[in-house]
Amino acid sequence: IVARATHPQGSVIRVRGIPIGGEQIQVIGGPCSVETQAQMDESAAAVAAAGCRMMRGGAFKPRTSPYAFQGLGVEGLEFFQRSARQHNLPIVTELMDVRMLDTFIEHEVDVIQIGARNMQNFDLLKEVGRVNKPVILKRGLSATISEWLMSAEYIAAGGNHNIIFCERGIRTFETAYRNVLDITAIPVIKRETHLPVIVDPSHAGGKAWMVPALAQAAVAAGADGLLIEMHPNPCEAWCDADQALTPAELKQLMTTLGAIAQAV
Ligand code: PEP
Ligand code: MN
Q1: Is 255 helix (H, G, I), strand (E, B) or coil?
Q2: What is the model's pLDDT at position 185?
Q3: Which atom of ligand 1 is nearest to the CA of 116?
Q4: The pTM of the whole model exceeds 0.90
Q5: Where's the DAHP synthetase I/KDSA domain (predicted)?
Q6: Handedness of CA 91, 129, 187, 23 (dihedral sign)
Q7: Pick from 54, 123, 126, 235: most CB atoms within 10 A?
Q8: Closest of 94, 91, 95, 127 to residue 109, by C-alpha
């Protein structure tokens, strides 16, 4: 169902009226994790000031260590929603457990993120396939393109065709950076499917200084948008501090993307 042949012209997914896929590129900015109300208030103001039209933030975090901060849970969704509403920013947040799906809907999460670690959590995919919320489907840490496409089919098969692919870097032999951003995946997914593709340069490089170059390359390669981590005070971030842009860095990066998008 996700195959290009079914919609040769390409699908545009609307999130509270904001189009993903199509002419404009959309940048989703925000912190790795929801920490406090003040941190989210500052983040939302910075995301809006930078010109981003959507906001990210995790309330349920898939941490490698069970002893690391796991996210604020439902309270985090509340902080997030309160801050984002002040700037009319739709919210993007990760769903890890099918049991939280109703809570996400009650809290009016606008876009459900399926994280890399859950790309093949088939029961989770089936459940998000039954709701009509847009879903960002991240590529698994070591997932092939065909596995990624099949995961999207799991969602689409349930009736939910509002799927946005997100390339976030894959594991290779290279250890000098967190993951290798697979730029090649962008034109391939766009050719194979009718759905939008966005790129997360933050989790790919794992370092803030790499983010502008990767973001710009992604837009040049035809990405429909970006998912970028930004924190009002990166040094103090509770999670993924090394890769968070400052508000000023996000704003600066945003000024460079329009011309690149125009040129392709
Ligand atoms: C995230 O976006 O917060 C995240 C955990 O990313 P990924 O699933 O790509 O590792
Ligand atoms: Mn993160």
Answers
A1: helix
A2: 98
A3: 8
A4: yes
A5: 17-257
A6: negative
A7: 54
A8: 91
Q: Whose CA is nearest to atom 3 of ligand 1?
A: 32
If you count them, how many residues does the chain have?
264
Q: Considering Cα of 254, then 18, then 214, then 244, what sign does the dihedral take?
A: positive
Dist CA 4 CA 218 (whole Å): 21
DSSP annotation of 254: H
- Residue found under tokens 């973001």: 215
Nearest ligand to the CA of 227 is: 1
Extract the tokens encoding 242: 């090394």
pLDDT band at residue 111 under the 50/70/90 scheme: very high
Q: What residues are in contact with ligand 1 under a 6 Å CB criterion? A: 32, 58, 62, 94, 115-117, 138, 168, 200, 203
Rounded to the nearest angstrom, the distance between the alpha carbon of 5 and the centre of ligand 2 is 34
Structural domains in the chain? 24-60+71-259 (3.20.20.70)
Token pair listed for 128 = 């998000």
